[in-house]
């Protein structure tokens, strides 16, 4: 049948249902397959190349494969980047997962007060516990930290228009998210002070005027500057603004709840509690960075400011869904109970190297005889996600140099597996860092390496 198609004129295009029949095995909803076949056939009709049934089939299969692979799915993270924005940031704790499952399968008291039987406060329990965790008068939660900034800025610029911010802090965080653009989109005028590398208290003092709505300090979370660099501390700025009654907000980004110097010796992330004690009126940070919870923007600080933010119509538009609230509530309680070891992000940071090395050795033992050179290598872990940019944590990797294909080809093969395994290439080796691979995934990783090596040798 294929030969027949080939021998006819190129105008003859295989019938859609012939191709569909051949694609029956593809695990996609029928309308998606049909649309893809139509799309590829019409693309072929427009080209003036001669094509066969196999050409069509290959093209459609390739397009479908790309589409299936773009479906959201778990991956195994061998990059050693603990908080990877591309990989969904913090993996959730078991308690958070159970909480999500229960909240999503059942009705809940989301906005219902069980004591009075009346309408209740959404996230009341969570807000109360968060405030205590942050050492704050009050706290609330919205969709993410960028949303927190938008809400805060649009709230405070009602009567005055300017937000004072240091030039060294007008930064870009991740893809397409610039602090300056976020602030301006909220209608604020930026009053930039200081220079990129140096800002003094006097710079702030001189910029304060009748139009000053807010002073914003942004934690430089995804890069660091070294050398001739200075900026005033939170305490110094707080002292300056206290008498003038100007709201002072610190965007912390990462949300470290405990001093991080112990795990990442080069630097310590300021905690919300420290910043509030130093005189910030409000702090905001992400729920899914070092806090180790779901995507969320946490705001903590002065009660009257938090209450004001919650009255904004924008607060309603930016609110969290119940599943996020359930996961965050569980994560907050783990922090409060001192159960950080149950929060995966924090647990991964602390795994001793000996433990990683023992896992690597056991895995390599099981990979003998493959057409590749496989050994224990050094790993360098980055916290990532705009957190602790200066710090790396020493780690352990499995280094693979395949014999029958290039390392790039090997990386492609590992990504094509189910679940996909993502590593990185350094010193001509394909590397998998064990710190970001859960020990429960070791078997899958062994299988994956074996599969990728075997695919290489059959080529
Ligand atoms: C990551 C980060 C944000 C953005 O947080 P999202 O929760 O991703 O919206 C804002 N500010 C700082 C300083 C950050 O590090």
Class by alpha and beta content: alpha/beta
Please, what is the CATH homologous superfamily of the largest domain? Type I PLP-dependent aspartate aminotransferase-like (Major domain)
Small-molecule binders: pyridoxal-5'-phosphate
How many structural domains can be distinguished in the coordinates? 3
Q: For the record, what CATH class of the largest domain applies?
A: Alpha Beta
What are its keywords?
459 residues, alpha/beta, Aspartate Aminotransferase, domain 1, Aspartate Aminotransferase, domain 2, seven-stranded mixed β-sheet, five-stranded mixed β-sheet, 18 helices, 18% strand, binds pyridoxal-5'-phosphate
Describe the overall structure:
With 459 residues, this protein is α/β, with parallel strands linked by helices. The chain folds into three domains: 65 residues; 122 residues, Aspartate Aminotransferase, domain 1, CATH 3.90.1150; 248 residues, Aspartate Aminotransferase, domain 2 (3-Layer(aba) Sandwich), CATH 3.40.640. A seven-stranded mixed beta sheet has the order 5-11-10-9-8-6-7, sandwiched between helices. Strands 2-12-13-16-15 form a five-stranded mixed beta sheet. Helix 5 runs antiparallel to helix 14. It is globular and about 75 Å long. The chain binds pyridoxal-5'-phosphate (PLP). The site of pyridoxal-5'-phosphate has 13 residues, from helix 7 and strand 9.
């Amino acid at each position: 049948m294929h030969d027949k198609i080939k021998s006819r004129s190129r105008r003859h295009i295989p019938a859609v249902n012939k191709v569909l029949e051949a694609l029956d095995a593809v695990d996609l909803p029928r309308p998606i397959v049909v649309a893809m076949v139509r799309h590829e056939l019409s693309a072929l009709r427009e080209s003036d190349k001669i094509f066969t049934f196999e050409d069509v089939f290959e093209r459609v299969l390739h397009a479908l494969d790309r589409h299936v692979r773009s479906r959201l799915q778990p991956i195994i993270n061998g990059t050693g980047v603990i908080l990877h924005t591309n990989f969904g940031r913090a993996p959730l704790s078991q308690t958070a997962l159970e909480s999500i499952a229960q909240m999503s399968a059942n009705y809940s008291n989301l906005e219902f007060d069980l004591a009075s039987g009346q309408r209740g406060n959404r996230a009341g329990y969570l807000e109360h516990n968060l405030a205590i965790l942050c050492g704050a008068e009050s706290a609330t939660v919205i969709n993410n930290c960028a949303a927190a900034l938008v809400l805060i800025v649009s709230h405070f610029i009602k009567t005055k228009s300017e937000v004072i911010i240091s030039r060294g802090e007008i930064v870009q965080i991740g893809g397409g998210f610039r602090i300056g653009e976020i602030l301006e989109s909220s209608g604020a005028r930026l009053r930039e002070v200081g220079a990129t590398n140096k800002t003094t208290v006097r710079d702030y003092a001189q910029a304060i005027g009748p139009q000053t709505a807010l002073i914003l300090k942004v934690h430089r979370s995804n890069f660091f500057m070294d050398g001739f660099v200075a900026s005033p501390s939170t305490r110094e700025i707080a002292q300056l603004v206290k008498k003038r009654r100007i709201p002072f907000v610190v965007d912390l980004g990462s949300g470290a709840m405990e001093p991080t110097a112990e795990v990442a010796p080069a630097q310590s992330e300021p905690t919300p509690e420290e910043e509030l004690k130093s005189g910030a009126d409000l702090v905001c940070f992400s729920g899914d960075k070092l806090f180790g919870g779901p995507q969320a923007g946490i705001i903590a600080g002065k009660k009257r400011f938090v209450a004001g933010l919650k009255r904004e119509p924008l607060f309603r538009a930016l609110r969290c869904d119940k599943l996020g609230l359930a996961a965050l509530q569980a994560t907050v309680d783990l922090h409060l109970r001192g159960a950080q070891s149950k929060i995966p992000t924090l647990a991964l940071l602390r795994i001793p190297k000996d433990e990683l090395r023992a896992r690597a050795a056991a895995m390599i033992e099981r990979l003998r005889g493959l057409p590749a050179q496989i050994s224990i290598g050094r790993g360098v872990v980055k916290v990532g996600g705009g957190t602790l940019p200066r710090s790396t944590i020493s780690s352990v990797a499995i280094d693979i140099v395949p014999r029958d294909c290039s390392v790039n080809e090997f990386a492609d093969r590992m990504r094509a597996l189910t679940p996909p395994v993502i590593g990185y290439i350094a010193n001509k080796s394909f590397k998998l860092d064990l710190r970001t691979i859960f020990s429960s995934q070791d078997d899958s990783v062994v299988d994956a390496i074996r599969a990728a090596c075997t695919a290489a040798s059959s080529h």
